[in-house]
Design brief:
mainly alpha; two-stranded antiparallel ribbon; 4 strands; globular
Length: about 325
């Protein structure tokens, strides 16, 4: 009979408790490479916005004579608006350049948003503020009820804050390589386009209209300046809503389109050649209004459809004896 004898090993005494190792700080990510051409186009966008702010600071009485059109003078407010439109062109081009060169990156998206805050946020708000301030004395002379300066300043602040919130939300909810066929809320370039197109219409189109037809347009001139702060507030609030808006440029230029879309483009191009100021004002105002009207229509239609389905369900239950 064999017996297994278990041998006891030496008892281990518990040692001193080890101190936790200190965590090493994480290495910061370094930006090593950037896409040069898209970044330069994006910076041109921000430069146009800064130039618009500088031009708007000169005031109402300042006129600029361009070398390309000798003898033609343009107010600095209208020229500031044209600079913002030039920034819009740069904002459209930088995305296409980045996609064509396959160089989309997070750096480009952040740089684009920072430049958009200047060109489509601070510049239109400052332009509206200086225009209303310049016409405040003439408002009182012609007997128009004057919009208080504090109210105008508050509206400008609200607009800029809405642009910042809208761009921050866009960066969080979207990636740099998305197709971007639609937007949630009114995009900042069309919102700025509504403000700037009305300024250009008041500064550049209305005086020419008075000379062409020999009429006094001062009443309409002042009325447009008076409603400009409230339009600024409206488009600012539309940017932070959840109302869907289409990406017009991507939808038109990408893929095959219907023949009616081609005819619409053929109709708009001669209108732009005839008078670009009026075309821009109508286009941007129509786009901002289109999203609201379409959203209300879809909301009303979906509500009526749900009510009709609920009635059918009730009728079916009553018919089946439930």
């Amino acid at each position: 009979m064999s017996m297994a004898i278990a041998r006891r090993g030496p008892t281990l005494k518990p040692g001193p408790a080890r101190k936790p190792r200190p965590r090493l700080p994480r290495k910061r990510r370094k930006l090593k490479h950037i896409a040069v051409l898209p970044s330069l186009v994006t910076l041109m966008n921000g430069l146009c916005g800064f130039t618009a702010i500088v031009l708007a600071s000169y005031g109402l009485d300042a006129l600029v004579e361009t070398e390309l059109l000798p003898g033609v003078t343009v107010s600095v407010f209208a020229l500031a608006g044209y600079m913002i439109f030039l920034g819009m062109i740069a904002d459209v081009l930088d995305g296409y350049v980045a996609r064509i060169s396959k160089s989309t990156s997070s750096f480009g998206a952040q740089l684009d948003s920072l430049c958009d805050v200047i060109t489509f946020g601070a510049a239109p708000a400052f332009l509206m503020l200086k225009l209303v301030e310049a016409y405040s004395v003439q408002f009182a002379y012609y007997g128009f009820p004057l919009v208080p300066e504090r109210v105008v300043y508050l509206i400008a602040v609200v607009y800029v804050l809405c642009v910042i919130i809208r761009l921050a939300r866009f960066n969080v909810e979207n990636k740099s390589d998305d197709a971007h066929l639609g937007f949630v809320g009114l995009p900042s370039p069309p919102a700025a386009g509504v403000i700037v197109s009305l300024v250009i219409l008041q500064q550049d189109f209305m005086p020419n209209l008075g000379r062409w037809f020999g009429i006094d347009v001062s009443v309409y001139d002042f009325a447009m300046v008076w409603i400009l702060p409230f339009v600024t507030l409206l488009v600012g609030l539309l940017m932070v809503t959840r109302i869907p808006y289409p990406h017009v440029v991507n939808r038109i230029l990408s893929g095959k389109k219907r023949f009616s879309t081609f005819l619409l483009i053929l109709f708009v191009l001669p209108l732009m050649i005839w008078n670009i100021q009026l075309t821009m004002a109508l286009g941007f105002c129509f786009f901002a209004t289109y999203g609201v009207v379409r959203w209300l229509f879809v909301l009303t239609f979906s509500r009526k459809r749900k009510e009709a389905e609920a009635r059918k369900a009730v009728d079916r239950n009553m018919g089946s004896g439930i």
